[in-house]
Design a protein that fits this description.
With 466 residues, the chain is mostly helical. The chain folds into 4 domains: 1-69 and 229-312, Rossmann fold (3-Layer(aba) Sandwich), CATH 3.40.50; 78-228, 3-Layer(aba) Sandwich (Rossmann fold), CATH 3.40.50; 315-374; 376-464, Arc Repressor Mutant, subunit A (Orthogonal Bundle). It has helices at 18-33, 52-65, 80-93, 103-115, 132-135, 182-192, 205-218, 248-254, 258-267, 280-286, 301-314, 317-332, 338-353, 358-366, 378-384, 388-399, 406-419, 424-436, 444-451, 453-462, and strands at residues 5-8, 37-42, 74-75, 96-99, 140-143, 150-155, 159-164, 172-174, 197-201, 224-228, 231-232, 297-298. Strands 1-2-3 form a 3-stranded parallel β-sheet, with helices on one face. α2 (52-65) links the parallel β2 (37-42) and β3. α1 crosses α10 and α15 (378-384) crosses α18. The chain is elongated and about 110 Å long. Bound molecules: glutamic acid.
Length: 466
């Protein structure tokens, strides 16, 4: 195989949505798998719809996902002069022609064809010479499609797909204002960039047959195509915002990890036996177009959550802390102290056991910060009513503990309960309410140990007059 070159070619008209991110991932993996190059081309020929904000969102989404591209990102618009010269070449070869139809005429003929159930071929000027008057009018340039025979694309995902050439319209390649269309630009850019494999959504399959004619007219090799089925919602319907058709930035904000997202997107349309957890290293080793499914994939938040939970549990606490720090500091409205940081680092292995997304961790970590601004929930307040003297007594018992370890703390609480003929639960429940103020928590004794004696006594002291 010659050196593999793939590309991701988003139109910067919105965020980097989940389908685009998966296309980018597959192209990236395919290039990395074969030691090839992965290029990024921003398809910004549609000036009215392209925005800088969308370009930034695409670039930052790619970076967040960890999909690095080779060389600089290329702007399609910058190639306009080259595209005009290719158009000249096609005209000179007789493979393209000038069309003088106005947009009103074209729209009327298109509507008429639709009414008759016919294909609009756009060939009004295919075999016609303009008179002197018309020749001075604006014109667009259309490609002269073959009318006989058929075109077959040996798609790496869809298999061999054939269309009759007679159904292909003489599409516009250069508009009357001199701007090239996407159909021309994509072909010339892919050729110029040496793209060997075009991996993209199957909404572009019909375009491939039309683009193939430009390659043929220019005598260029047609790249290998792989058209991936689109992503649907869990209910099988077309993906909408409600289903998760959001920008990659929204997933970052929801607290998903890039590694989990990569794993999820990878499995959304590609499989390796029954493997669900596939690291990026394994994906680079295994990824191939032969295992891309032919049916539409279904987006499923629960699966994404469970993968995210898995990747969180794999992480070193020291690497998790920076991911939650800002949000946590916003919640507690102050900077984290070193003591709080250390408590959180110790607690993280048990926190991640119960977390799916980063905000779950922020919430749980809140418990390990100073309690000053921590509100008491209604439920906890209820459990504390009339328990002030018991809380005070527990505090006195714990104040006497000289070695602050979970074993000693547990023994102290047990002996406290025994001495008063109370069940453990009767002591633990209000103690927990005083310490956590109603926030969900794991094992109370472990929490007390990590909080340290001073913070534990201070929290109990706060509730001693409940
Ligand atoms: N710019 C096109 C899009 O965003 C992709 C074109 C292609 O991959 O060939 O849908």
């Amino acid at each position: 195989m010659p050196k593999v070159v793939t590309r991701f070619a988003p139109s910067p008209t919105g965020f980097l949505h989940i389908g685009g991110a998966r296309t980018a991932l597959y192209n990236w993996l395919f290039a990395r798998r074969h030691g090839g190059s992965f290029l990024l081309r921003i398809e910004d020929t549609d000036r009215a719809r392209s925005t800088d904000a969308a370009i930034d969102a695409i670039i930052s989404g790619m970076k967040w996902l960890g999909l690095d591209w080779d060389g600089d990102a290329v702007s399609q618009f910058d190639q306009a002069a080259r595209l005009r010269s290719v158009t000249e070449e096609l005209l000179a070869k007789g493979a393209a022609y000038k069309c003088y139809a106005t947009s009103e005429e074209t729209a009327a003929l298109r509507a008429q064809a639709r009414e008759n159930g016919a294909v609009f071929l756009g060939d009004m000027w295919r075999d016609r010479e303009p008179d002197a008057d018309t020749a001075s009018q604006p014109y667009s340039i259309r490609i002269k499609m073959p009318r006989e025979g058929k075109t077959t694309i040996d798609d790496q995902v869809q298999g061999a797909v054939t269309v009759q050439n007679g159904t292909l319209d003489d599409m516009i390649i250069l508009r009357s204002d001199g701007t090239p269309t996407y159909m021309l630009a994509v072909v010339v850019d892919d050729y110029d960039m040496g793209v060997t494999h075009v991996i993209r959504g199957d909404d572009h399959l019909n375009n491939a047959f039309r683009q193939a004619q430009i390659y043929n007219a220019m005598n260029w090799d047609i790249p290998i195509y792989a058209h991936i089925p689109l992503i649907h919602g869990a209910d099988g319907k077309k993906l909408s915002k409600r289903h998760g058709a959001l920008g990659v930035d929204a997933y970052a904000e929801m607290g998903f990890l890039p590694a989990a997202m990569r794993n999820y997107l990878l499995r959304l349309g590609w499989s390796h036996g029954d493997d669900e957890i596939i690291t990026t290293e394994q994906a680079i080793e295994w990824f191939g177009l032969e295992n891309v499914g032919r049916g539409p994939a279904r987006f499923d938040f629960d699966k994404l959550d469970s993968l995210n939970a898995h990747y969180l549990r794999q992480m070193n606490p020291a690497n998790i802390l920076p991911l939650i720090e800002n949000e946590l500091e916003n919640t507690i409205e102050t900077k984290l102290s070193d003591t709080e940081r250390n408590r959180i680092l110790r607690a993280l292995p048990s926190i991640v056991e119960r977390a799916k997304r980063l905000p779950d961790i922020v919430e749980a970590a809140r418990l390990y910060c100073s309690a000053t601004s921590m509100p008491v929930t209604e439920k906890a307040a209820g459990m504390l009513i009339g328990k002030g003297s018991m809380i005070q007594a527990v505090a006195i018992e714990l104040e006497a503990v000289t070695t602050w370890s979970s074993e000693v703390i547990k023994a102290a609480i047990m002996s406290f309960a025994q001495a008063r003929d109370l069940k453990m639960g009767e002591v633990m429940q209000p103690t927990r309410a005083a310490i956590t103020r109603g926030a969900p928590s794991g094992d109370l004794v472990d929490l007390l140990e990590i909080l340290g004696q001073k913070e534990a006594l201070s929290r109990l002291g706060d509730q001693a007059d409940a």
